[in-house]
Amino acid sequence: MRIAFTGGSGKAGRHAVAYLQAQGHEVLNLDLAPLEGCDSLQVDLTDSGSVFNALTSMKNFDDLEKPATPRFDAVVHFAAIPRIMIKPDQETFRINTMSTYNVMEAAVKLGIPKVIFASSETTYAVCFAHGDLKPDYLPVDEAHPTVPHDSYAMSKVANEACGRSFQARSGIDIYGLRINNVIEPHEYAANFPAFMKDPSLRRRNIFAYIDARDLGHMVDCCLKTDGLGYEVFNVANPDLSVGISNAEVRRRYYEGVPVTREMGERETFYDITKAQKLVGFAPKHSWRDVLTTEV
């Protein structure tokens, strides 16, 4: 497929782009910064005209040899201010919502049949809440309330509303990915020993994570799955990001939180059942492949 990928130069994006290219997809990275190994176009996504232009752009000089510029088969929208406390709150909200609106509007009006966009674990409010906010129930699935307290998560909830509305308006497929904490391969050895010693460090991420390579796999699964209309998916690896068991995490940190079903000894609290069933998501990478002992 010919894919326009926004934010491909970011932490999550560069791994997803590499994975998609390895699967044979043609990718044009739309970002403020270039990405080595991928055709890139510098675009301010908060400018509607620039987005329309970018989504009708040539990918590289090879396109000059074609009778007409090929159209994109899909847009993957990962570009965003990635968390709070990078820019002032109103700028975080403005940039994240305007860029997403512009990308979805242009895709719909240009007839691009699929949009996959990055939402976030933060929509469930736990991550950037003041103090200790527990989930309403466990495991956290896509039906869990999304009433966040911070500008970043608010922007993601607003983006989901835009996605639902643009899908209803157009009938194309628009899939939102509620991505958990993205972990690059080198971060296992660097960061996870501390998580083994102090599991509470993972409380704000609901004790979950997503390997950056498996995130690329999830995007590819969505590209290959047509006809779902509008859907949101939790995206995480199937295991916990700490060495203690599921039951022990619940005993220490989730006392009194209802548990809606039986859970496995190492199973994540960030439910990925929907993605597994609807798009064939099958993550393969784990911190347990790198760390041989649980401290």
From TrEMBL:
Q: Which Gene3D superfamilies match?
A: NAD(P)-binding Rossmann-like Domain (3.40.50.720)
Q: Which CDD domains match?
A: SDR_e
Extract the InterPro entries matched here: Epimerase_deHydtase (IPR001509), NAD(P)-bd_dom_sf (IPR036291)
Concerning Pfam families, the annotation shows: Epimerase
Signal peptide per UniProt: none
Q: Which domain of life is it from?
A: Bacteria
Limits of the NAD-dependent epimerase/dehydratase domain: 6-197
Name assigned to this protein? Nucleoside-diphosphate-sugar epimerase
Lineage runs:
Bacteria, Pseudomonadati, Pseudomonadota, Alphaproteobacteria, Rhodobacterales
